[in-house]
Automatic annotation (TrEMBL):
Gene: cobB
Catalytic activity: N(6)-succinyl-L-lysyl-[protein] + NAD(+) + H2O = 2''-O-succinyl-ADP-D-ribose + nicotinamide + L-lysyl-[protein]; N(6)-acetyl-L-lysyl-[protein] + NAD(+) + H2O = 2''-O-acetyl-ADP-D-ribose + nicotinamide + L-lysyl-[protein]
Enzyme class: transferase
UniProt domain comment: 2 residues (Tyr-69 and Arg-72) present in a large hydrophobic pocket are probably involved in substrate specificity. They are important for desuccinylation activity, but dispensable for deacetylation activity.
Compartment(s) where it occurs, according to its Swiss-Prot or TrEMBL record: Cytoplasm
Membrane-spanning ranges: none
Annotated active site: 120
Protein's recorded name: NAD-dependent protein deacylase
Domain Deacetylase sirtuin-type: 1-240
Task of the protein: NAD-dependent lysine deacetylase and desuccinylase that specifically removes acetyl and succinyl groups on target proteins. Modulates the activities of several proteins which are inactive in their acylated form.
Binding site for NAD(+): 102-105, 188-190, 214-216, 232
Gene3D superfamilies: SIR2/SIRT2 'Small Domain, TPP-binding domain
Keyword set, alphabetical order: Cytoplasm, Metal-binding, NAD, Transferase, Zinc
Binding site for Zn(2+): 132, 135, 148, 151
Native source organism of the sequence: Cupriavidus campinensis
């Protein structure tokens, strides 16, 4: 890690009055959470994630997609937050921070972060697909999506699938926070998936200083005022 850049980032963070943080899969990498594509290992290696994570795929093969999510829940349940998650929770104890994540693993909350804005939903939340409004579950059977006892609707994972809109309130709150911050910290995201990837640009256009933390080059480096090429779990605890 470049000591001069680190010192510059520390000073900027110390002087900021509103901090907007955007996190991605990289913040959970050191916890051992497989990224979306890495989740397709073993039995799942022959599937294309973009063919499993869509509403059409779920309607076509509900048990298969449901089992993939059961597998992912089991993998995430075996992990713990890492120093990057804890550092972000600690930052919010000290400063005004809005934490926006693309992750669905809940590890920020487990580390103590509150009011996390989850742009892509949560792996452990379910919702109804075509529910009747009075849906009631029958006892779930492993490997099968639960059904409503009244109308037969299926439960579906409460995550954002390809082709779906972001949850409206989460998106609105994230955009507002990006536009009104004076420091934007982008951690562990490739910056390839929109609309989340547009948030640091909004922050920059509104005058914020943008810091990217990522050991690899990312699509958001061009938007950044400062890039810290280091793993989040090492870098963030050194920043405040
Ligand atoms: N610390 C910080 N960054 C890291 C670390 C680390 N220890 N390890 C890896 N990274 C970086 C990688 O270099 C990469 O740029 O994390 C990034 C992960 O990129 P993606 O896997 O594309 O994850 P993300 O940007 O969160 O993806 C966005 O796309 O797959 C969909 O819906 C899914 O929310 C996800 C969205």
């Amino acid at each position: 890690m470049d000591a001069a850049l680190l010192a510059q980032a520390r000073d900027r963070i110390a002087a900021a009055s509103q901090i907007f943080v955007l996190t991605g899969a990289g913040v959970s990498a050191e916890s051992g959470v497989p990224t979306f594509r890495d989740a397709l290992t073993g039995l799942w290696a022959r599937f294309d994630p973009e063919e499993l994570a869509t509403e059409a795929a779920y309607r076509r093969q509900p048990a298969l997609v449901w089992q993939w999510y059961e597998h992912r829940r089991a993998m995430v349940s075996a992990t713990q937050p890492n120093p990057a998650h804890f550092a972000l929770a600690q930052l919010a104890d000290q400063r005004p921070v809005t934490l926006v994540t693309q992750n669905i693993d809940g590890l920020h909350q487990q580390a103590g972060s509150q009011q996390v804005i989850e742009l892509h939903g949560n792996l452990f939340a379910n919702k109804w697909l075509d529910g009747c409004g009075r849906c009631d579950t029958v006892p779930p059977v492993p490997g099968e999506p639960p059904h409503c006892a009244l109308c037969g609707a299926m439960m579906r994972p409460g995550v954002v699938w390809f082709g779906e809109d972001l949850p409206r309130v989460a998106r609105y709150r994230a955009e507002h926070a990006a536009e009104t911050c004076d420091l934007c910290l982008v951690v562990g995201t490739s910056g390839l998936v929109y609309p989340a990837a547009a948030l640091p640009g909004m922050a920059r256009e509104n005058g914020a200083f943008v810091i990217v933390v990522n050991p690899q080059p990312s699509a958001l480096d061009a938007t950044a005022d400062l890039v810290l090429a280091a793993p989040a779990g090492q870098c963030l605890p050194a920043l405040w």
